[in-house]
Amino acid sequence: MTRHLSRHRDAASTRSGDRHHQPLHHVSDADAADTAGSLDVTLAHWAHRRLSPARFMAMVGVSAVMLFGLVWLWVLIMPLAFLDPEYPAWRAKQTLLADCDLGDTLILGDSRAASGMMPVGWRISATNLAVGGGEPIEALAALTRALRCPLPPARVILSFDAVHFTRPDLFWERSARFGFVDGGEIATLRDVSRQLGDLSVYELRHTDGLPSWLRDAMVRVRFPSLYFSSLVKGGVILRWPRNQATLEASLASRGQYFFGTAAGSSTIAAEGQMRDFRPLPVLTWYFSQILDQLGAHGIPAVFIAVPMNDATAGKLAPGVRPAFRAWLAGYEARYPGFRVAGDVMPHWPDAFFGDGFAHLNPEGAARFSAGLGRCLDELVLTAACIQRLHEAPPNTQNEAQYGWFNETAPDASLRVRPSSK
To answer: What is the rounded CA–CA span in Å between residue 161 and residue 167?
Structure first.
């Protein structure tokens, strides 16, 4: 028995050894050529096989759907890569809102406020959520989100020029495309517009032939065709470096950003073409909603206008300014927490403006912001302080912060002359 097992192990060992020591068989060049040739024939046959029209169309359709899906995904997750150069500033404001990083004072308004109020240099903590082409619609959207924060703002500055109560501006091109308003807020605009019989904003430049409900749905899901122009002009990804830098700068400036930066402008802005002041019903409704929400939360609001250039002020129709002031006075009478400080349509020398829309240039914005910051430092913000600021710019930022507002004479601001440019 033992001998039988020993012979069995020896045989197994021999077979195992044979397997381990068998020579390797190399594929000859001829065999490899034959294999490659067979593969080439197979690929050639596959490439030249006849496709039925139905199969061809199915392949094209699947490819198109996949490409469209990739573009849609790009639109959703990479807007900084291709959207307009102003988008990052809007994105910064959305980020500040989402993080509830707002401070004690919140600024809501249009592009003049967005460029002219620089909260970084103030002693109080504040955030500028004013946007280009902003009207009470965008301001209400921002305020609604701000009021959801654990620590809502203690004070709100409202700043709109007269034009942004009387005509629509960039709601669909900016506010909707940039995602500053959501689907529910667009639905509210639709319903309110229809109830008031004022479709001036809701149907603004609606010339694509699509039903309104379909356009609203496309905006809500950010349908790629709405962004085709930006994708082409932005080279799909070429705007990313600049937009990323603008986003970081806008966050650092607490939402403030510039438009024109020229060293002066005498171009007449939109107010110079107004013949009277007739606010749109839909924008009136939104402005009332802002004050309703602020009143319900016990948050005071002050209306502070940003200056226009002298050239535009010189073309104002005589009745525009008093009509605008009387309209705002009606809100002061109805809302105890709301008041107007200073002039509703102030103006400064043309040298402090950077473009044809009467946006303050960097020097003008620095001087106006320094003066405004000094007024906001006071325990009680006085209309007289804002009025002095509106009447004439201080010679220097230091004067605005430390000396200019200490003048006690009634005409103190009139003695201050702007520096030559």
So the answer is: 11
Q: Coil, strand, or helix at residue 259?
A: coil
| pLDDT tens digit sequence for 267-295 | 999 999 999 999 999 999 999 999 999 99
Phi-psi region of 355 (alpha: psi -120 to 50; beta: other; left: phi over 0): beta
- For residue 257 the two structure tokens come to 């950003």
Angle between helices 362-377 and 383-391 (to 10 degrees): 160
pLDDT digits (tens, 9 = 90+) for 164-193: 999 999 999 999 999 999 999 999 999 999
Amino acid letter, residue 420: S
Dihedral-angle region of residue 382 (phi above 0 means left; psi in -120 to 50 means alpha; beta otherwise) = beta
Tokens of 293: 């929400």
Residue 347: left (phi > 0), alpha (psi -120 to 50), or beta?
A: beta
Segment (H or E) for 293: helix 281-296
* 49 CA to centre of own chain: 53
The CA distance from 180 to 389, in Å, is 32
Q: Tokens 């002009």 belong to which residue? A: 233
Whole-prediction pTM: 0.80
User: Under DSSP, is residue 197 helix (H, G, I), strand (E, B) or coil?
Assistant: coil
Token pair for 198: 């004022």
